[in-house]
Amino acid sequence: MPQLNSNEAGQLLLHSQRGSIPVRPVACFPWSEPNNYISLRNEAGMEVGFIDSAAELDHSSRTALETTLRQTRFVFEVIAIENVEDEFELRTWSVKTRQGPRSFQTKLDEWPRTLETGA
Amino acid sequence: MGAGPQPAMSDPVSQIFDRYLDQPPTLPTAVRRRVEQACQGEIIQLYALADLDASLRLCQIWVTLTANYLGVIRVADRHVDEHIRVVLRGRLDKIIEQPGLSCTVIHLLERAEEHPFVTIRYTHRQRGAIGHLLYVLDQQLTGRTLEFTPSDERYREAIVRPIREAQASVSGNRLAIVWRLLGYLRPYRAQVALGMFGATVMTLARLLPPFFTGQVVDQVIQPFQGGTLLLAQAWPLALTLLGGLTVTLILQECAAWVRLRTMAVLGEHVARDLRTQMYDHLHKLSVSYFSSKQTGSIISRVGSDSDRIWDFIAFGVVELSLSFLLLIGLSAVLIVLDWRLGLVMTVPLPILLVLIYRNGRVMHAFFLRAWRKWSNLTDALSDVVPGIRVVKAFDQAEHEKRRFGERNDDFTDECFRIHDVWTGFWPILMLLVHSMTILTWVFALPRLLAHGKVDLSIGTFVAFLLYMGMFFYPIEIIGQMSRLLNRALSSAHRIFDLLDTEPQLTERSDGVRLKSLRGAIEFREVTFGYDAVRQIIKGVSFGIEPGELIGLVGPSGSGKTTLVNLLVRFYDVTGGEIRVDGVPIQELALGAFRRQVGMVLQDPFLFHGTIIENIRYGVPEALFSDVISAARAANAHDFICRLPSGYDTVVGERGHTLSGGERQRVSIARSILHNPRILILDEATSSVDTETEHQIQEALNRLIAGRTVVAIAHRLSTLKRATRLLVLKEGRLIEQGTHAQLLEIPNGVYRRLHDMQIQLNEVHAI
Prior knowledge:
The complex is a heterodimer of chains A (about 120) and B (about 775). With about 120 residues, chain A is mainly beta. Chain A is built from 1 helix and 8 strands. Chain A has one helix at about 60-70, and strands spanning about 5, 10-15, 20-25, 35-40, 45-55, 80-85, 90-95, 100-105. Chain A has a 5-stranded antiparallel beta sheet with strand order 1-2-3-4-5, with helices on one face. In chain A, strands 6-7-8 form a 3-stranded antiparallel beta sheet, with no helix packed on it. The longest helix of chain A has 14 residues, at about 60-70. Chain A starts with a strand and ends in a 12-residue tail after the last strand. By secondary structure, chain B is of the alpha+beta class. Chain B contains 24 helices and 19 strands. In chain B, the strands form 5 sheets. Chain B has a 6-stranded mixed beta sheet with strand order 13-16-17-10-18-19. Chain B has a 4-stranded antiparallel beta sheet with strand order 1-2-3-4. Chain B is extended. The chains are: A mainly beta (about 120), B alpha+beta (about 775). The interface between A and B is medium-sized, with 16 and 14 residues.
């Protein structure tokens, strides 16, 4: 199992017999499987390690990985919709997110969209 | 045996002959007898009509085949007497075909460079039937004897087919279409009954208010003004009648609500059923259907046509039947009220209905034409939108705008014509109706103004006038509905046209399910042509062992793609046989077979969706980790990980957000995950950069390992690795062997192709 920790600059480091190198974790399925299937890439973008599931890492590696991932997969989490305003071709949403209030626009015919499951 | 029974003229094929073709629907019995006599009593197996004589005048010459003879008989007409020639089929040595713009001449020769012993000339209409005949003769020349049981069907089908295919635009039997459409209401009997009930109540309720009005005049107002009714008596009576009127009106609108809602919902059900049925049917149709129809026409059938059916079901069915009911009811009421005035109103009624019906027929034709123009218009759109890059690159926007504009104008003109017809018709119809009103007054006035005995009470006359006003309503509805009905009918016509298209491939219900294919393929004397005339594959035989890598090589147009299409059974062979693991391909359960066959095409098609959905297309239940391994094997993993959303990235329609090489690798990953036993590979000719080329090549090598692979090969590396190369030219297999073996054939086709490619590569290298 890969050994990971993060340095002071907040960079994730991968340890091996040849020393430690900074890596960038890339989630293969950032939306459908955000915590699993993580590809570790070196500075040149080459894959130097692969983690099927964060659960199989030791505790400190896992913490380091998750701290880094938190930044890379930052998304606003909407907790309430305050107001939706339709204009021609544009829809303005005012929402409350876990990170604070925010408003954004979507194209009228793109959102809301039906998910594969019909929801 | 002689002539089969002459088919009755009522069957659809004979109707087509009767209506559109000026030729006999079968070989006339007398002619058949004459020919069979001349052929030593042998039975005619196959025949066709050659409809031109030596001076290219239309005539009736029958070309017939028996087991050993070729008989040509000219039926007597104004110019010549009957003339018959019978020759032994064995004499034939060569067939020369001289195709022309609208006629073809065939020379049958005994030996090359000799005067033909039979020459036939025919117009394109006969091409299909004669094509069969020539095919049999052609096969005879290669030493194969085809026997047929005598039947008229081959001739009839071949002649009728083009017309039947074009018949979508020909108006069919309208009553039959309405009837079939109503059949879709059957699952919803309860709702139909409810809707009908609502409509009936509504109609009956509508008949009451004039009655109340007449009563108020005759029972209350007149007696009161005449002094025979006291105020104290008049008020309660008047209020009762008013109450009755109120209740009736409320009831009427409630019923209207029930009727409208039920039928509107019902219409949606039927439209949905039709759409589902059409879409399901589309998936059953063979690839050839989609190459013969333009996308726009299919889309408008599933889309707007089913919408018009909704119109008809929601408003047409009930309104129309009730309008007739109302007309009959009103006529009865009017005659009962006063038979003389009643007759004035009802006698002209049939004339009006006939006028409406005839107008409807005209409209139907106009609507069909308008639809065709509409379909033209959408075709222009569905053609240009996917090809917008080409349009821009060649700076043809103005041309395309003009093309669209012309079609748009064309369609609009057609609409104008439609509006001309119905807007002109309406005032005339209504004028006729109004003239009935005038006529009623003309008849009623002398009676109302007569001194002494008045046989027409004012109340009756007022009620009569009100009923008369109601009379116009159903006539108007029938008139309007006839427009709706015609629109719906032309839509239904096209929907049924699609639904009635038979898939060309028939799948046996008891097809053999091969659990796991070994991947042995055998072609035995396979011949194939997309139409009856031109053969694309001509007697190709070869065998492929499981796990072999076969390269198909040949100049473009040599039949490589067709061969591959036959192997996955997009089309059925016209002659010979294809066997997979020893089982004839027609006997395999198609689904189970195709699940074990994979294709990687030159221009890989990705659907709108995420990358993972695209990779999992054939195996939706695949695990995430399997998807990743497949993508790794396809050299796609790295570039996918570089995308911000990774495998969850949504690729646009046809995957246009990815580069060609990336799409190619995603499609390879899809095939690796699909894990087919037989793999069809259509190698890209388009040039990608060396690095991408290398990546794709690596991916392909992993993909083909351990499978039976048939590759349309262009890359030298594939050619070298192939266990065997099959070289096709003009539909025939002319060379086969390994790369090295084939290069040793002096003046070989493969060698020439190879040398040319090498030269090209050198040019590139410079």
